[in-house]
Amino acid sequence: AWRTRPAAAPGAGSPARRAVAFEPDTCDAALARRRGLTVDERFFGANSAKGGAAADLAYARHVIEHVFDFRDFFSGLALATSADADLVLETPELDHHCLTASLNPFHVEHVHVFSRRSLARLAASHGWRLAGQVTTEDGNLIAWFRRQPGEAGQLAGLPDGPRLDGLQSRFE
């Protein structure tokens, strides 16, 4: 979903004027429309992002683990967001599920599973600096990023790798 600022207050962090959702599934798109969202029924990427107003917030909830082409996805974000935009990504967290011996994130439709570090590294390689992250009780990683034009590939400040001490004993 995208949120664009009202034209009268650019950069003021004011309430959303409108939100746009990308949902290729027609049933889910219809539900979102009933809730008042503008819905584009295409997969998000560079082609679908062209021509819209620059958003100040992009939120992808349980999307990134299904993305085949990261270059296309992040190119779309670059086209669809303002220079000071925020990005929120929510996805199952590999670290949590390893520590709890859970197979939940290894769903047939998930082409990727991310740790805190791997998600931060991926976003950084496309110009998004990690601002913070939390893991929910059920093992979802919610990470938020600030767009950093010209800083793609800057990996300073990434979170430490997982602490897997004692993991083997969980399987014995």
Q: What is the element layout, followed by pairings?
A:
Elements: E1 2-4, E2 18-22, H1 26-34, E3 38-40, H2 46-49, E4 55-61, H3 70-80, E5 81-92, H4 94-99, H5 116-124, E6 128-135, E7 140-147, H6 167-170
Parallel strand pairs: 2-3, 4-5
Antiparallel strand pairs: 1-2, 1-4, 5-7, 6-7
What distinguishing features does this structure have?
172 residues, alpha/beta, 7 strands, disordered N terminus, disordered C terminus
Describe the structure.
This protein is an alpha/beta fold and 172 residues long. 25% of the residues lie in helices and 27% in strands. It is built from 6 helices and 7 strands. It has helices at residues 26-34, 46-49, 70-80, 94-99, 116-124, 167-170; strands at residues 2-4, 18-22, 38-40, 55-61, 81-92, 128-135, 140-147. Strands 3-2-1-4-5-7-6 form a 7-stranded mixed sheet, sandwiched between helices. The longest helix has 11 residues, at 70-80. The chain starts with a strand and ends with a helix. Mean pLDDT is 78; it is low at 1-14 and 167-172.
In the predicted model, the low-confidence regions spanning at least 5 consecutive residues are 1-14, 167-172
Secondary-structure-based class equals: alpha/beta
The major beta sheet can be summarized as: 7 strands, mixed
Share in helix: 25-40%
| Radius of gyration over all CA atoms, rounded | 17 Å
What would the principal axes of the Cα set say about the shape?
globular
The fraction of residues assigned to DSSP E strands is 25-35%
- Strand numbers in spatial order across the main sheet: 3-2-1-4-5-7-6
Terminus-to-terminus distance: 43 Å
Q: For the residues shown, what is the average pLDDT?
A: 78
Order of helices and strands: EEHEHEHEHHEEH
Give the number of helices: 6
